[in-house]
UniProtKB/TrEMBL annotation, chain B:
The chain crosses the membrane at residues 9-32. Residues 66-167 form the Cytochrome oxidase subunit II copper A binding domain. Its main location: other. It catalyses: 4 Fe(II)-[cytochrome c] + O2 + 8 H(+)(in) = 4 Fe(III)-[cytochrome c] + 2 H2O + 4 H(+)(out). Subunits I and II form the functional core of the enzyme complex. Electrons originating in cytochrome c are transferred via heme a and Cu(A) to the binuclear center formed by heme a3 and Cu(B). The keyword Transferase does not apply. Keywords: Copper, Membrane, Metal-binding, Transmembrane, Transmembrane helix. This is Cytochrome aa3 subunit 2. InterPro entries: CcO_II-like_C, Copper_CuA, Cupredoxin, NosZ/Cyto_c_oxidase_sub2. It comes from Oceanobacillus luteolus. It is found in: Cell envelope.
UniProtKB/TrEMBL annotation, chain C:
It comes from the Bacteria. The chain crosses the membrane at residues 23-46. This is Cytochrome c oxidase subunit 2A. Keywords: Membrane, Transmembrane, Transmembrane helix.
Length: 569, 167, 47
């Protein structure tokens, strides 16, 4: 029988040595940095959740917003603070924890990471203030030619720039590690963080370009007009990878943390890496599927990007298989046989597992809806109806968010030097159930209502008293019920955070990182052919976007002047 | 890289499934011609009347032939201009006999709007600088609400009209 | 010694783990994706 040494020798040119993932301990300074990100994420959750509550109540038609607050101000806060701020702060904090745990920060790297944090925070505050004083009722997609106060755009740009500083730190950490360990594969979680940050940097070039050369000069009055379609196309070049930037950290936890929580091993290190490489390739050249019903874009190129969008389904299919396989193998090892006997071993009473698991369940209808959205002409049926927010409240606000909560239950006590207690665990289980129930009610109502034609991002209206509008009203009531339950779930989550940060007993909470099987198949070296991965990504982007963008520029109509009166400022 | 036998089955079936979906969509689009709206005609947003379709007298519904109609719409914050009736009052409700073919043409002089006859497949973005068009056959009788489904400002939810497909 | 040996056999890369439950589970997932997609297509065609 081949000993590992023989195996290594036999394949040494093509595969990595496997020494297992070394786990470092997070220094006090690293912990403080990561906790700072977590604090911003928690505050954002509370503020964004409150906006969500006000929104569903207002849209039910039964309540009026107090103090003359505009519905669309609330909607803008909800979208910006949750989709852009809460996610990016949690993700970057979590990713820094993974980098600290597997590779570590030097003193200088940590200082730069703090610089990134402060730039993001300052940007967030600037954008938040402009929204709250009612000068930026443009929603989180800020479609020109609606014009917000220039500081709104500058604030959001700063958030992106801050994230680039952190990305540069992560790249530097990874580069130095690779140099110091030439024949080793990178730690799986660090590899995943680098893929996600690479995707993020390549994607944000789109929105940054649009901001710096179009929107900001135009909003300041240095440019009279703007190419509306170009700004939208650049926005969606960024906007679709944005949703994968949310999803991939959840997948990191699914592939490499959940197995440890359930007492198992990583199903396949190579497959996990391969699926992330596919996400890097296919997350970006697909943005046109958000613009399928738009004029000025050629239908052939729309269809080509639909094909590329379908490619990005494949790594999610791989992920689904890996999850079931991890559960089944672990269960069978523990002696639970049969077709579904292995389900019994899963730690249903451990919130670190239950919350992400409910998130996984939500991804089944979420993924199904996503394929429908991307389906070219079928998209016409659901485009901009409330089906769409119904869809991403399953994917982003359930799959991703419940996985993030599942991470927080161990990460926050780990960072604050406390224990996840039984009481907090129990509260977490109630929180997960409450979230699942609230979201099922709200999202189902939104999906059905969307198929019936109700528009998204709209205040309550009887639309001239049509029968259809009356029918939508019933679902809007259901939305209000679901949304109210979700708000209580958020309050409970905030209570849990406070308990975990200040009141849980001192101790050392485990940072669960799964290992491979002792004799797992070695990971091939081609998985870390970074130059090739970046080159393929760029080639796919150039292929998918060169002609459409040239077309938008060359056949541009007269540009649009800024409009600020429609947003009430 | 080793794939478990069942994973090969699963990925194989998944990929075949996705290809079948794409073939169905491609057949519908490129053979039967059901594309989403992708019209490329441009227009000066500050002078939309330079295009005949959007001159005030041509707005709204026009019968061009037996069972064929043109519907020209100007979407602006926060109104759909569907033309005026004999008395000069703005039209808000349109009636079309079931089975008719309708060419919907729309543009905007200001910001981005959505144009959706809720419950039908007439759903398109309306963007300054472009004419959006869609031709559909309306076969199912009923009342369909015209809603703006892209955020256009604080009066966004007050943009509406209706379409009645009558027997 | 025996248990160690057994563990070794179980995790040998040459022998595939039993993943029947996984195959059934992903098949159910695939069926859900198929049914919802066809449903959406039908609704689209009827409109």
């Amino acid at each position: 029988m081949a000993t590992p040494a023989n195996v290594v020798e036999k394949f040494s040119s093509k595969v990595f040595h496997n020494y297992g993932t070394v786990e470092l301990s997070l220094s006090k300074r690293e912990r403080r940095l990561i906790m700072s990100y977590m604090y911003v994420a928690m505050i954002s959750l509370l503020v964004g959740g409150l906006m969500g509550l006000l929104q569903v109540l207002a849209r039910s038609g039964e309540f009026e917003l107090p103090w003359g607050i505009n519905y669309y101000t609330i909607l803008t806060v909800h979208g910006v603070i949750l989709a852009l701020v809460m996610t990016s702060f949690f993700i970057i904090g979590f990713q820094n924890a993974l980098m600290g745990k597997t590779i570590g920060f030097s003193k200088k790297q940590l200082n730069w990471a703090w610089v990134g944090f402060w730039i993001m925070l300052i940007g967030t505050v600037i954008a938040a203030v402009t929204i709250l004083i009612g000068k930026a009722n443009v929603l989180y997609t800020f479609y020109a030619p609606l014009k917000a106060h220039p500081l709104f755009y500058i604030g959001i740009t700063l958030v992106v720039v801050g994230s680039w500083v952190t990305a540069a730190v992560n790249f530097r950490q990874f580069y130095l590690w690779k140099k110091a360990h030439p024949n080793e594969k990178s730690p799986l979680l660090a590899f995943m963080v680098i893929i996600n940050m690479l995707m993020w940097c390549i994607a944000t070039i789109g929105v940054a370009t649009s901001m710096l050369i179009e929107i900001i000069p135009w909003s300041l009055g240095y440019k009279n007009t703007i190419n509306v379609l170009l700004s939208r196309t650049l926005f969606w070049y960024f906007g679709h990878p944005l949703v994968y930037f949310w999803l991939l950290p959840a997948y990191m936890a699914w592939y490499a943390i959940i197995p440890k929580v359930i007492g198992g091993k990583i199903f396949s290190d190579s497959l996990a890496r391969f699926s992330f490489i596919l996400f890097l390739f296919f997350s970006i050249p697909v943005g046109l599927h958000h613009q399928l019903t738009e004029p000025g874009l050629d239908s052939t190129w729309k269809f080509i990007q639909v094909i590329l969008t379908f490619m990005v389904v494949i790594p999610s299919l791989m992920t689904a298989f890996s999850m079931f396989a991890t559960f089944e193998i672990t269960g069978r090892k523990k002696g639970y046989g049969g077709l579904f006997g292995w389900l019994k071993h899963l730690p249903w009473k451990d919130v670190r597992f239950l919350a992400p698991f409910v998130g996984m369940l939500a991804f089944i209808p979420g993924g199904a809806g996503g394929i429908i959205n991307a389906s070219y002409q079928i998209n016409t049926m659901v485009h901009n109806t409330i089906w769409v927010p119904g869809h991403f409240h399953l994917t982003a606000a359930t799959t991703v968010v419940l996985t993030f909560f599942g991470i927080a239950y161990w990460l926050i006590p780990h960072l604050t030097g406390r224990k996840l207690t039984d009481a907090v665990n129990r509260l977490g289980i109630y929180q997960t159930i409450l979230w699942g129930v609230g979201m099922t009610i709200m999202s189902t109502a939104m999906h059905i209502q969307g198929l019936a034609g109700a528009p998204r991002r709209s205040n309550f209206s009887d639309y001239g008293g049509t029968e259809q509008a009356a029918e939508w009203g019933a679902y809007q009531m259901a939305q209000a019920v679901g949304g109210t339950i979700l708000f209580f779930a958020i309050l409970l989550m905030i209570f849990i955070f406070i308990k975990m940060i200040f009141f849980s007993p001192k101790g050392e909470q485990e940072f669960p990182i799964a290992q491979e099987e002792d004799h797992a198949e070695p990971t091939p070296k081609w998985t870390e052919n970074w130059k090739l991965w970046i080159a393929i990504t760029l080639v796919l982007i150039l292929f998918a976007y060169t002609v459409p963008i040239m077309d938008v520029i060359q056949n541009a109509p007269p540009g649009s002047a800024p409009f600020d009166w429609p947003i009430g400022s | 890289m080793h794939l478990h036998k069942y994973e090969k089955y699963w990925l194989g079936a998944g990929i075949v499934g996705l290809i079948v979906f794409l073939i169905i969509l491609g057949f519908g689009a490129f053979y039967l011609g059901t594309h989403p709206q992708s019209h490329g005609e441009i227009i000066d947003p500050e002078n939309i009347e330079a295009n005949d379709a959007f001159k005030p007298e041509n707005r709204g519904l026009t019968k061009v032939d037996e069972g064929r109609y043109v519907l020209n719409i100007v979407a602006s914050a926060f109104n759909y201009d569907l033309g005026t009736d004999e008395s000069g009052a703005p039209i808000k409700n349109i009636e079309i006999p079931a089975g008719s073919k309708v060419l919907v043409q729309a543009t905007t002089p200001d910001v981005i709007h959505g144009l959706n006859f809720a419950g039908t497949n007439i759903n398109m973005m309306v963007e300054p600088g472009y004419v959006s068009t869609m031709e559909v056959e309306l076969n199912n009788p009923g009342e369909y609400t015209l809603v703006c489904n892209e955020y256009c400002g604080v009066g966004h939810h007050l943009m509406y009209g209706s379409l009645e497909v009558v027997e | 010694m025996v248990t160690k040996n057994q563990k070794h056999v179980n995790t040998n890369p040459e022998s595939e783990p039993n993943l029947k439950g996984t195959l059934i589970s992903v098949s159910i997932l695939g069926a859900i994706l198929l049914v919802t997609w066809i449903g959406a297509l039908m609704l689209f065609l009827l409109r």
